[in-house]
Design goal:
Strand content: 5-15%
Structural class: alpha+beta
Order of helices and strands: EEHHEEHHHHHHEHEEHHEHEEH
Strand order of the largest sheet: 1-2-3-4
Number of helices: 13
Bound molecules: zinc ion
Distance between the termini: 51 Å
Radius of gyration: 27 Å
Helix content: 55-70%
Length: about 400
Amino acid sequence: MRSNIKLGRVSGIEIGLHYSWFIIAALIVFSLGEHFRQVNPNWGTSQIWIAAVLTAILFFVTLLLHELSHSLVAQARGLKVKSITLFALGGVSQIEDDATDAKTEFWVAIAGPIASLIIGFGCLAIALGLGWQRSAEPRTVVTAVLVWLGYINIGLAVFNMIPGFPLDGGRVLRGIVWAVTKDADRSTRIAARIGQVVAFLFILYGIWEFFSGAGFGGLWLVFIGWFLMDAAKASYAQVEITAALRGMRVSEVMSHDCVTVNRGMSLQEFVDTYLLRTGQRCFAVEDHGRLVGLITPRDVGAIPRERWGVTTVREAMRPLEELHIVTPDTQVLDALKLMAGNDVNQLPVVANGALQGMFSRSQLVQLLQARSELQHPAAHYPPITAHG
Ligand SMILES: [Zn+2]
């Protein structure tokens, strides 16, 4: 989930909006406008819309505070937080590192719901202080906004504490199971399985509600259940992949068939003899056996065609200093993190100044697929026959 609109930074964390957030913001404004019109017939049109828009904006602020609580606790416990994005279904904090201990997992996860609960009860308390009667509809714009924010934040905290991975409740549960079993992978599997059961119950309950006349409300529950089911499956798959990759080194999965070119060659010659003939997308540039940079079709494209004859590969390449490199001993999981953090798809593998190979995501995916097919051969495969 990438944000389309950047709003600024808090404690180094980029705050942004995804376009889908506007859909939910518009829905909130219009349904609230309708609600205020019905319960406060004496309100003028401007009062109704001021209250609705103010509520939507403040709801956005409280959602952000929920996410910030996750992120700031994560930062305080030594994890790197990249960004917070608000989208149609809420907010998401991009915490770059996974929690390395059960306590961190627990506190990072529970910080959000705690913040929402405090905000929720705080809003209700202020509304009571301003004369709102608990049994009655709030009559002023300020109390109406506060009461709605109060209930929605308490609702947010309760919903997020559903013990389904990857909701906050699922992570809290994972932290607890982790503390008990001392096994990070197992705790994710258990939390994800429970998440699937919870999601299934949501779907069943939603269908039952739908047929007993709840209509859209029932379908909404089914939709939430379906979303949770998907997310739980994805986290389960994630932990399987992580477990498979743990301990694996870059040297085991890197490609060796990397084409090297001399740095003094002209771009024209490089294009004619290498780029157009080999079909490769990445070439290592060497100087007396030492890697000095990488050149890709994109780097060539950045130079105007009429200058290809007088530009050398060295001038067009990305020099080694600007590249993120790994060694053959680097853990595959660390290499993947480096790629994700820097938005690149491949990393040169370098040892003692010399290029050993390339590590790429696509190759890793192919390798994992090949391995999983070996483990679960599909039934329609032709029987393997011995060839001499
Ligand atoms: Zn949360």
